[in-house]
Amino acid sequence: MAGRMAGKVVVVTGAARGIGRGCAEMLAREGARVVIGDVRADEGAAAAEAITAGGGEALFVQTDVVQEDQCAALVQAAATTFGKLDGLVNNVGWFPRAMLEDTTTEFWDQVLNVNLRGAFYCCKHAVPLMRANKGGSIVNIGSLNGIQGLPNLIAYASAKGGLLAMTKTLAGAYAGDRIRANYIIPGWVLTDTEIALHAGRGLSEEDLLRAGAALPLGRHQTPEDTAYAVIYLLSDESAQVTGTVMHIDAGASTLPIPPSSPYVG
Ligand SMILES: NC(=O)c1ccc[n+]([C@@H]2O[C@H](COP(=O)([O-])OP(=O)(O)OC[C@H]3O[C@@H](n4cnc5c(N)ncnc54)[C@H](O)[C@@H]3O)[C@@H](O)[C@H]2O)c1
């Protein structure tokens, strides 16, 4: 398949839905062979089938990224099925809210495990395959919270901050192996999970769309907005780019968040 990702084999975690699915679909349209790792069996399989039905190549491997052996099996499936591994997108994320004093040890561990430990396992097992491939590209899907967290996202912000530090550390550690690592900040994306989270707080989709229209560039960001950046960072177009933070957040990091925004709270 021709395209900017022609010939590349890429693993995308958390690609059964949301931003990850948008990335997997665009990667396949650009010619990548995509391995989807997600804990949701039915949705993950459906995502891979949709790509295949559209003329792309995709494989689904049910994976809980909190389990090291499952992460190892996920990246190995790319090499076994498609012959190598060029790219890894650590997209799995979970963003439940809790202020500091409501953050229990169990909650902290769960959030850190899903958002940080999973990416560590996937990187750990992907790097040897990338080294054997004489190079590769890792894209970690972060958050603005990884730089400055919201008050009720203490654990999530800590995990995404850790992911940022891990990204820069890997970039330095593996540049000699031609393995690059970069961090994307997707802004505010109305995925089903995000909509459900705010619905639980009494906000309708219309409320959220109104809040999006008030954002600096006039709308929420989409999975496709992130996917364009993922493709750049996984392709040879970014061969000299590593250790960077790419903001796909319409300038959110440059402006104070209005106290009335549903993004806060
Ligand atoms: N939606 C936003 O506004 C937003 C903003 C900034 C950053 N992000 C980040 O973008 C990424 C994707 O967010 P999203 O909104 O698409 O989320 P989502 O909930 O729509 O999708 C997350 C996917 O990860 C999977 N997943 C969750 N736990 C898993 C586990 N233990 N093992 C394997 N798969 C697991 C889910 O099944 C789901 O398919 C996350 O890292 C998130 O932190 C999202």
What does this entry look like structurally?
It is a single chain. With 265 residues, this protein is an alpha/beta fold. It has a single domain, classed as 3-Layer(aba) Sandwich (Rossmann fold). The protein contains eight helices and seven strands; from the N terminus they run βαβαβαβαβαβαααβ. It has a seven-stranded parallel sheet, sandwiched between helices. Helix 2 links the parallel strand 2 and strand 3. Helix 3 packs parallel to helix 4. It is globular and about 50 Å long. The structure holds nicotinamide-adenine-dinucleotide. Nicotinamide-adenine-dinucleotide binds next to helix 1, helix 4 and helix 6.
What distinguishing features does this structure have?
7-stranded parallel beta sheet; Rossmann fold; alpha/beta; binds nicotinamide-adenine-dinucleotide
How do the strands of the widest beta sheet line up side by side? 3-2-1-4-5-6-7
The class by helix and strand makeup works out as: alpha/beta
Provide the β-strand percentage band. 5-15%
Count of individual domains: 1
What's this entry about, in short?
The chain has 265 residues and is of the alpha/beta class.
